[in-house]
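User: Fold this; tokens only.

Assistant: Input:
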Amino acid sequence: MSGLTPFCCPDSERERRLNTDLHAPLGQNRKASRERPGILRTGRVVAGLCLVLIGASSLYTAFRGDGLDRQNPPTQDQPVPPSDTIQNQVPPQDQSAPAPSGMLISDPRSGANVEQMVTGDGSVVTKYSPRQRDGNGPVLVDASQVGQDPRMAAIPNEALLEETPLGRLPIVGTDGRRPMDQYARPWSGAHGTRIAIVVSGLGLSQTGTQRAIQQLPEEVTFAFAASGNSLQRWMQEARRGGHEILLQVPFEPFDYPANDPGPDTLLISKPVAKNIESLHRAMGEITNYTGIMNYQGGRFLSDPNAMEPVMRDIGKRGLLFLDDGTSAQSKTAIIAKGTELPYAFADVQLDKQLDVNAIIQKLDELERVARRNGQAIGVAAAFDESIDAIAQWTEEAAMRGIEIVGVAALTNDPKRP
């Protein structure tokens, strides 16, 4: 038995050490590793240098100039600022005449001071600040010139009108804006096939006018007859519906007076002043139109002496002229080029035959012209058959990649780049 004693003690000792290790805090019984004082000392030095650099960088950023300090204006004792500082202020724009409600109308581009400054690195910083306006009370911002918002489309731009004994006539604004630009229907600008369709004679028939406004898509241009009824009401409805509009003025046909277009017809036998007066009386019937379209007028359009002063007045007022294309002897192109008048010709008369199928065939012909030339203009009257055919055809044309645009987009305009 004495030979077994040496083996018992090692087991008890192993158990005692195992119990001791289990109840000891973690890592307390580990052997301490030998420190490496050289490496630790170097690391501490590097960390200290990093902290010093970070602090110095923060102090530099806090106290250095940022280059955006606005320079004070020079006084009598101070030199003029260096040439690298620009101060540009937008000149004030006068407010236009009061609206019918008596409220002042303000141009949306006014109302701000604009200052520009060049920083040290050459960048230009622009600062906008409110400008004091004259007068008290509210001001109506003229938003009608920004796009074609249907909520504002029926309201004329007062800056593009002048008061005359014959009514409110269109004029070019002091900033060069023309009524044909102000009231033109926007389009995509894409170089695709473009077609303008003009439905004329609106205002002559109340039911026909209402039907055209209700059923035709907004891309169709409307031409209102100057001798029509309730023109202001119909104009507002058409404009709120998104339509571009023209004003139809009666011109002398070859078979006048057997064929009389109506009162205030422009005649080659009238003095120039009388024709201009008749033109202005027609212009004063409504507002918000982009141009003038002839109603008949084969004889008048073929006479350069009668046409020239009338076309010059139309162009001077910032309007376009649409020739309906019915007179082969028309001198519109020659006169328009000589007076820098924006003009266009209709390519196809759509409803010579009052039948829906026949009108659709004419619209197909119009499409072929447009695909060949890039654009085309068709004209029709506000008959039921014309309205039905145009409404059906325009819906199908969109699926063939054709863009229906306002007639102003297709004019020959000397001011268009």
